[in-house]
């Protein structure tokens, strides 16, 4: 484990390491051409090293509820399972039975390491499939995203659910396999129903303008409706009890969530991906079927979050779209020729994208 890193510095160490990598990419882009074979080889080696480091750093973190949220809760449940005590499982069946199975063979640190592998690997596979020899840059955007760290160390079930959704997208052209992974993600955490529903809707009605207008309309609807939307979705029973509780148990959750209300900063963060999709599809005429589908999933899922943005713990719903932001922003830039000096522009975009993460997690 990384016990030699003081707990207060553990999370900042992660983000400061990524800051160094982001600066390296920015500096490299100012001097070299990404198509150069030496550059590609360099970032391949750097990328694999970073994959291993991130898996180990997340998986072998110390057990601390103060610094890693639900890590201590999972540790307590795992200890009960290890001791042979009966633990009733009524929801998130894949995750809980997986935890119960692992408790027969490995300790809690081994379990968290295995969870880390499952969490990080789909991002790697997705990046390698859709970005080819430039996979490192997409992968870096995934791990440099605002909530990636927290859902690898705190909201594990949410994080694993989205990981299996990404793995499903890896098998986009093999529908049966894709839906199996979607279903697995749902039974990891029921909130994955939201991006699954967005996937189905945007796959059935293939009109990116409609997705864009849905997203735009959600902003005034949220400002006007406020708590009415929270009550409405909370009453539908579309998710398991704890997930629905993020919407309805306002007084309880307010004690645990430091900032509520209409989060304009998070809305602007989401808008960066919507703007990217709008720009690439409508201004640069990208007609890629997979990309348009991704854009639809993001817009619909993010619109749902905007409608409930004032709820305590609405960040749990924000992640159900945010986990796709790296793909929405980066995909066209490594599949199509869009600008001159495209690598330099991407490096600037990536750096700005990461700096939001760095500011919110380290500086703020």
TrEMBL record:
InterPro entries: EpsG-like (IPR049458). The keyword Cytoplasm does not apply. Keywords: Membrane, Transmembrane, Transmembrane helix. The chain crosses the membrane at residues 12-30, 42-60, 105-126, 133-149, 155-172, 179-205, 211-232, 294-313, 320-339, 345-363. The keyword Transmembrane applies. This is EpsG family protein. It comes from Kaistella solincola.
